[in-house]
């Protein structure tokens, strides 16, 4: 790629990276435990894409009160916390669960049975948990789980709808895991990757009581999936004694990331505007809307937080929702030299790719076309990643240690 707007692109990337550091799991957990330290020795469980960094923060903050820990995270997301001999680390598949997800589920139940009676349990739950750990009913295996997950991810349903079905297939989700706590005092501490920061939705609510209406599936599903759902034991009623020793708290969410981005913009001398609404909906519609808004905006940094969706064709190409949003925005920015847009996951991944998202500008469309790609065809085929690789606009961070939905940053100069 040429140096089209390179200085402004670097400014946007710097805001994004500083924002990610501000909401990293180890920092969030250390801050919380310094303000609310446990009185007893602790056993720690951390699950999700931010689990390893959350475990590192817990071990650092608890020091000699830390007895042992279990990390369950995405493949290739293990790090320094796993060098601690007190910590057992497992990795599993995401966004589609794999055999390791089922092994992790079995090990989680064994681990809970081993917790000393007088120890306090700390659960740290972050996004990705729904795929990473699972216990299935008798007679249901990985093939059925993969089929169900594949249908859900390609359905275009929002995260709440997807999780309702995931909960219905699980022996531990929707509060069912609380039955395995043996009435131990437990703190359920969450990093939110969902709109509204609803504890029942984050990680499919492993330890959160659900009223029956919260588990109703009010949209059409295939008959084979409905049959699988009928095999799962009912979730415990919110009045069940298994929830009595539980304390649930959301530590951080997307709003915190937006605020951190605004703070970094101020330090960089940029006037910023944060959209208070959490964006949801079709990625292509969102991208075009943000692109149009930027072209008519006053100079400054515009910050949106949320999570879009993509309905996949039968044979999708490469990319994720942020890449689709960014490429759709680029079609609105084409030919201009005063607008730039970054769309990326805070977790460092976008769909089934190793890219976090993309940073596009007024030259993106031309650069991709010069390499033989058509933006409309790429969007139709869900192949935005191939176009954005050709145009030189993909962002790669590796695992970030956080997961608070997606961040869209628009710069008008």
TrEMBL record:
Residues 12-211 form the MOFRL-associated domain. Transmembrane segments: none annotated. The keyword Cell inner membrane does not apply. One of its GO terms (molecular function) is glycerate kinase activity. It comes from Thiohalomonas denitrificans. InterPro entries: GK-like_C_sf (IPR037035), GK_N_sf (IPR038614), MOFRL (IPR007835), MOFRL_assoc_dom (IPR025286), MOFRL_protein (IPR039760). The keyword Manganese does not apply. The lineage of its organism: Bacteria, Pseudomonadati, Pseudomonadota, Gammaproteobacteria, Thiohalomonadales. This is Hydroxypyruvate reductase. GO terms for cellular component: cytoplasm. Keywords: Pyruvate. Residues 302-406 form the MOFRL domain.
């Amino acid at each position: 790629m040429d140096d089209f707007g390179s200085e402004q692109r670097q400014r946007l990337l710097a805001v994004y990276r500083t924002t990610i550091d501000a909401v990293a799991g180890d920092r969030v957990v250390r801050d919380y435990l310094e303000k609310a330290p446990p009185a007893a020795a602790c056993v720690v469980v951390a699950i999700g894409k931010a689990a390893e960094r959350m475990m590192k923060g817990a071990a650092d903050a608890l020091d000699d009160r830390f007895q042992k820990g279990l990390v369950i995270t995405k493949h290739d997301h293990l790090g320094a916390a796993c060098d601690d001999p007190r910590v057992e680390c497992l990795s599993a598949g995401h966004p589609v669960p794999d055999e390791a997800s089922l092994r992790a589920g079995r090990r989680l139940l064994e681990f809970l049975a081993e917790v000393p009676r007088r120890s306090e349990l700390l659960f740290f739950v972050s996004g990705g948990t729904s795929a990473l750990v699972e216990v299935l009913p008798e007679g249901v295996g990985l093939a059925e789980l993969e089929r169900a997950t594949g249908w859900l991810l390609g359905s275009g349903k929002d995260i709440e709808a997807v999780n309702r079905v995931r909960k219905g297939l699980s022996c531990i989700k929707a509060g069912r895991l609380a039955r395995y706590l043996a009435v131990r005092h437990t703190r359920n501490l969450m990093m939110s990757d969902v709109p509204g920061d609803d504890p029942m939705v984050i990680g499919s609510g492993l330890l959160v009581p659900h009223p029956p209406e919260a588990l109703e599936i009010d949209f059409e599903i295939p008959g084979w999936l409905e049959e699988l759902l009928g095999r799962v034991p009912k979730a415990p009623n919110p009045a069940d004694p298994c929830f009595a020793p539980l304390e649930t708290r959301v530590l951080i969410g997307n709003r915190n990331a937006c605020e951190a981005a605004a703070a970094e913009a101020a330090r960089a001398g940029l006037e910023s505007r944060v959209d208070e609404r959490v964006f949801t909906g079709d990625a292509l519609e969102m991208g075009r809307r943000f692109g149009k808004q930027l072209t008519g905006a006053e100079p400054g940094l515009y910050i949106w937080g949320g999570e879009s969706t993509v309905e996949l064709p039968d044979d999708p190409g490469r990319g994720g929702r942020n890449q689709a949003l960014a490429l759709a925005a680029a079609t609105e920015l084409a030919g201009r030299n005063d607008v730039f847009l970054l769309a990326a996951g805070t977790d460092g991944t976008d769909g089934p790719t190793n890219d976090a998202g993309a940073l596009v500008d007024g030259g993106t469309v031309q650069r991709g076309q010069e390499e033989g790609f058509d933006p409309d065809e790429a969007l139709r085929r869900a192949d935005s990643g191939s176009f954005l690789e050709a145009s030189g606009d993909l962002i790669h961070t590796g695992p970030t240690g956080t997961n608070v939905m997606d961040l869209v940053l628009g710069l008008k100069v």
